[in-house]
């Protein structure tokens, strides 16, 4: 279970204008809510959020938030970004309790080299996160999935995973996590011939040449 600490302050002024002003100062507006307590608008140093983002499992990370001289246990529920610049615009924190299950998304890590890849197959990693429900103390940093025994055409689904007791998977059981596909074989000679045929332009028929051929044919008939 990964834990971090972060210092935040209450945000006094609300609205788009004050939020933009905060961002110009290197601060990110946010909110903390949950556990039957009212939401509290906050502001946090952008560098603190960027530090947290360096972790692969940020969505499942437990954060000890210092606010008004008190500590609260929270997780990051949502990070809003600018659609073009991808800059962080707003962060939502949710309060959690150590004795109440929560829903989080945990990254999946593939382990091993599939047997099918050694035979020329291609490993496709289709589902990179797993949504689970468990106590905060049981949240794994990531979930390892062994793919070493996958042959060409084989796959691993959510229902194939074996997770520790106390962790409930919320994804659909038939969701494919990884699959080894057969390589696409292209006959080089046939492909080259088809490409040449497609690129070769047809010779245009010249009107002048056709008329000369007809005149020559008529002269030969007269001489005979």
What does this structure look like?
This protein is about 20% helix and about 40% strand. With about 220 residues, it is an alpha+beta fold. It folds into two domains: about 5-95, Beta Barrel (Ribosomal Protein L25, Chain P); about 105-180, RNA Polymerase Alpha Subunit, Chain A, domain 2. The strands form three sheets. It has a seven-stranded mixed beta sheet with strand order 1-5-6-7-3-4-2. Strand 6 (about 70-80) and strand 7 form a beta hairpin. The protein starts with a strand and ends with a helix.
The count of helical stretches stands at 5
Give the helix level as a range of percent. 10-25%
**Strands, total number:** 14
CATH level 1 class label of the largest domain: Mainly Beta
Per CATH, the superfamily of the largest domain is Ribosomal Protein L25, Chain P
Mean pLDDT: 84
The geometry reads as: flat
Question: CATH fold name of the largest domain, please?
Answer: Ribosomal Protein L25, Chain P
Rg result: 32 Å
In terms of per-residue confidence, which ranges show pLDDT below 50 for 5 or more consecutive residues? 219-224
Largest sheet: 7 strands, mixed
